[in-house]
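Quick one: structure tokens for this chain, please?
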Amino acid sequence: MHIAVVGSGYVGLVTGACLADFGISVTCVDNDARKIAMLQRGEIPIYEPGLDAIVAKNKKAGRLFFTTELKEAVEKALAIFIAVGTPPREDGSADLGYVVQVAEAIAEHINGYKVVVTKSTVPIGTGQLIEKIIGERNPKFPFSVVSNPEFLREGSAIEDFMRPDRVVIGARDPQAVAIMKDIYAPLYLIETPFVITSVESSELIKYASNAFLATKITFINEVAALCELLGADVLHVARGMGLDRRIGSAFLHPGPGYGGSCFPKDTKALTEIARNAGRSFAIVETVVEVNDRIKQRMADKIRAACGGSVAGKTIAVLGLSFKAETDDMREAPSIPIMHTLAREGAVLQAYDPAAVENARELLPEGVRYCGDVYDAAMGADCLVVLTEWNQFRSLDFERLKGSLRRKLVVDLRNLYEPEKMREAGFEYHSLGRR
């Protein structure tokens, strides 16, 4: 079997590399010649732990190829995965322009039975749209359209692909289902649950899943704010909730709000899908609004810790990416928080292990980007933890005290124990804890 993966961004590259590791011949296609040239040289254009090794391994084994030539890849592939971007429009709906372009190109080059698989996150009805485009433009050859959404977490995408909670396959054609099961045979052998459903249900599963997780994050952030007012401890509350198997402990960790490439885009897209169907999805609409307010509340918390004003004060920021183990700055909480602090006259100096280059275009002018934690803390009146990188969990606090002008820490990820921080001589503020 040969597979073509169209789009070599985050989803497409991880998908192509992991499918090649299943022993399948995979060609990754992208119209960005610079990106393809990098991949052909063995350079990985995104930061994802373990991805460089799996790409190198399968290139060397002759199972993974990179090209800008879509025609050849489509002609020799049995299954064609569409993994292009679906960026949000101004109204929050998904822009399917790239998906349509790929469907039109597949129609032009199709030369026999093909399984066309949407890996991109697409609104309900996209499968029908792809069927219409290919069927009208090239009715000569049979094909099937399958929805196979991805559930990859940035920072642990390889593990998520190789040991997923489930594989969702939405299809109308039994032959296409059989081919998809063959593709994912290694996962079937380790007893991964397979959800076989309609194309429309599969398309909605991805949006509903991400919206629910975003709701869970936002809920515990609101609980944290309430804990601060009532004198409760949000970590104890979250543990007490999470031990209920109906709730679970995942995503019950307070922070500065969700960000990244999926949750902000998919929650807004789901509310727009509902509006187009004549219904208001009030819960998710509220989640979107509250998440924006949470980010502003973090700036308020920093200001309050600094005595009511950050004007003229130096703020050290640890972590810029929206989460640890990624260089992704899309919708990162650091962006609105640092812009607010800069507007109010703060001097900002920051450190992130991976995201600095991506951050430069999104953060305020004048931010000083530092080489390590202690450089960022040098002369600062306040140190703010914004991303939960593991290396921030075990700092040399004596050295840190020597770097800071004022021993003030605002921990927006609850990485440290309040009592230990006070014993170490810090004025310490965290989320949902006294």
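The chain has three domains: 2-197, 207-283, 289-429.
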